Amino acid sequence: MAITIGRLGYVGFGIEDTPGDPVEADVYLPYTDISMRGHHEPLPILGSKTSRLMDKDSSVGKKWGEGDIKIDCDIVNSGYLWKCALGSEIYTAGTPSSHLFYTTVSGNTPTTATIIFGRDTDIEQYSFATCDTLKLEVSDGLAALTASFQSKFPTVGSAQTVTTTSGTVLSFKDLALKFGTTLTTAAAASATPANEFSLTLVNNSEVIYRSGSSDISIIRTKGFRASGTYTLFFDSETDKNAYYALNKRAMDATFTGNANEDLHIRISRFRLNEGEVSTGLEDFFVIKGEFVAEDWLDTGTATRLIDVRLRNDKASAY
Length: 318
Prior knowledge:
This protein is mainly β. It has helices at 78-86, 183-188, 238-245, and strands at 10-15, 27-28, 31-34, 37-46, 55-72, 88-92, 97-102, 113-119, 122-138, 144-151, 155-156, 175-180, 196-202, 205-208, 218-221, 225-233, 249-256, 262-281, 284-293, 297-298, 303-304, 306-312. It has one domain. Helix content is 7%, strand content 52%. The chain is globular, with a radius of gyration of 22 Å. The two termini are 36 Å apart.
């Protein structure tokens, strides 16, 4: 049977109980873009010096899986990507249910997943999928979430019975961005109108190879960083002065969905690495802040570095 040419396909996604042990799909993500594929690095066997021909032969070298999955940031499906990036979840049942994703002070390892990528009859399974980078972006349209994964080399997957689950898709109109000296004062502050906002979580993952197999042995995660940007019309000198004086602040970013749904991002303390003032938006002065979260315990909320809470109708942990 020939593979049907077109944009149809599916991405099955399941959180692994044990890293590297494949699981069935928990959800089929309604992706907007995907670049997952297998990579192979052949080992060239160079010709002997008695010949002018350089490439005599080659041998099997390192193999791995890698690529991005991009989705519209919705109130349900985004939780699978947040959990993979941050690693830990506190689930609290209710109406709505609460899913709090966070990274511990010691830097817990991210949760791994099995990805099943289907293109008609071509079905590939990627186990040990580790989120290297997760980026949230919003400007004047829909909020987008892009996860970059590294995994074991793909194997042949089985055909799936695909069902899709969708949540409320979030956009720029749903975002309230607030700042304060602490998370408590930030939550009580008035929203700062932003022209764009992004958040990037980086796990600095690295594939490790050992003798006996050309496939990866394990994926290690190194230093974790939470950073991002926001752009504001230059209506005051607050952010310029915060950059000049290295003033540390807290950030509270909330996307509000339907009923009691929300996506709530809290950063206890951040610094501005850059605060550029320019005529970036239709010749109006704007300031673009490039922020980095710092490891500091907000004793009033017991929050360190960053946490992300989803409130939705999913009645179980991710």
